[in-house]
Amino acid sequence: MSRRIPSTLREWWFGAVPEDWRAVPLKHLCDRSSLYGANIPAEMYESDGVRFLRTTDIGEDGTLGADGVFVPRELVAESILAEGDFLISRSGTVGRGFVYRETDGPCSYAGYLVRYVLNDKRSASWLFYVTKSAPFAVWLGASAIEATIGNVNGEKYANLVLPVPPFEFQRAISDFLDRETARLDALVTAKQRVLGLLAEKRKALIAAAVTRGLDPQVKLRESGVPWLGEIPGHWELWKVGHLAKVGNGSTPERDKVAYWSGGSFPWLNSSVVNQEEVTSSDQFVTDAALRQCHLPRLRPGTVLVAITGQGKTRGQAVVLSIEATINQHIAFVAPDPPLLDAWFLRWTFYRAYDYLRSISDDAGGTKGALTCEDVAGLNIPLPPPDEQRTIVAHIARETAKLDAVRAATERTITLLKERRSALIAAAVTGQLDVGAAA
To answer: Of all helices (H) and strands (E), which one includes residue 333?
Structure first.
């Protein structure tokens, strides 16, 4: 049962703890504290030797990544880790902790990690869980703000007052949290697999609909287009540029007030393609910019394709549902409505994404961009207009079902993670009787 600590301690970062717990600075739990790692340049890394731990090698769960770097033992002889040593990040992944075990093999550590040699190595697992608790995260955020550069130095950690239970309770807390966090993590992993399967099913559903149609008995023919494969025999094959107007926009000069100040016409960049539909804008240009900067006035029903961009952006497509203009990193595709439905075209670009990426990479080169000519020259299937609309309605209906399951699964993952965080906080501050909860 948790009881209030003496009034002189009420304002400490961890709040109330049982009366038989001690409030002790981290450095008083250590034989040695605030030991900074070595600064060794990358050109001195080797293929074997002593593993040299960096902040990026330590995962959120306190485990080491599979890929690491190594240095000669003589360079780090004074900083070889011993069983139960505790490391914590002071920069980048600030506050991320790691308990060294001999099973990790010989290890040293880099300068953005700080080492604490505990006087009782058995406390290491309990200390790790303290650094995973919500109260610690609050303290960490406040400390990083005070530092102004987002770092927390070794002395700051060393002076952090910890809620220290008797050792038998430390062990009980660690064992309980090992067991319960593993159970919750397994549930999260299972739910994340569900998300992966839903994404695969969604992709397959769309691909089948825009390349094979909805009639499983339809007679197929070879399209002659590698990324398309077979298509229904009654479908036609056209280049995008023969069915739609293709072009791109520009970025008016930012220092020309006449182009931006008081502007009311939506101006879009390539970040919008990560949506399925563009319904608003956060940037606007003036009529002067539209007239003088060769900006296209695009109507709702235009499809936008990112022709440059980092990550997954390049090759993504979205349907425009407002009147807007665009920058030079987007191609607009304005289809002829009687012949080509905008949403069918959008889903066809979705199916062609991998192909568009391959040609934008220029067969392994460094091109890293599509052109309007690439987009206009893309061969796409063309079902009759009524069939296009039926396919679009089918995709909307079926993806809505999948998206609902995805949203529910994501909510479950969020709740499981919140449960994990709350469990750790309650255990390390004595709000939870881990013996009764076991």
So the answer is: strand 330-335
* Contacting residues for 144 by C-beta, under 8 A, at least 6 apart: 94, 150, 151, 152
By C-alpha distance, which of 296, 433, 431 is closest to 3?
Answer: 431
Phi, psi of 409 (to 5 degrees): -65, -40
- Cα 305 to Cα 356: distance, rounded to the nearest angstrom: 10
Fold adopted by 7-164 = Adenine-n6-DNA-methyltransferase TaqI; Chain A, domain 2 (3.90.220)
Q: Do domains 7-164 and 217-382 have the same CATH topology?
A: yes
User: What letter represents residue 387's amino acid?
Assistant: E
Query: Is 253 in contact with 294 (CB distance < 8 Å)?
Result: no
Tell me if the domain spanning 217-382 has CATH number 3.40.1010.10: no
Upper half-sphere CA count for residue 215 (Cβ side, 13 Å): 13
Q: What is the pTM of this model?
A: 0.82
Domain boundaries, the chain: 7-164, 165-200+209-213+384-438, 217-382
**Closest C-alpha to 320, from 277, 281, 283:** 277
pLDDT in tens, the chain (438 residues): 333 444 333 345 677 778 888 889 999 999 999 999 999 999 999 988 999 999 999 999 999 998 899 999 999 998 999 999 999 999 889 999 999 999 999 999 999 999 999 999 999 999 999 999 988 998 888 887 666 566 889 999 999 999 899 999 999 999 999 999 999 999 999 999 999 999 999 999 999 999 999 999 999 999 999 999 999 999 999 999 999 999 999 999 999 999 999 999 999 999 999 998 999 999 999 999 999 999 999 999 999 999 998 889 999 999 999 999 999 999 999 998 889 999 999 999 999 999 999 998 864 445 589 999 999 999 999 999 999 999 999 999 999 999 999 999 999 999 999 999 999 999 998 888 886 555
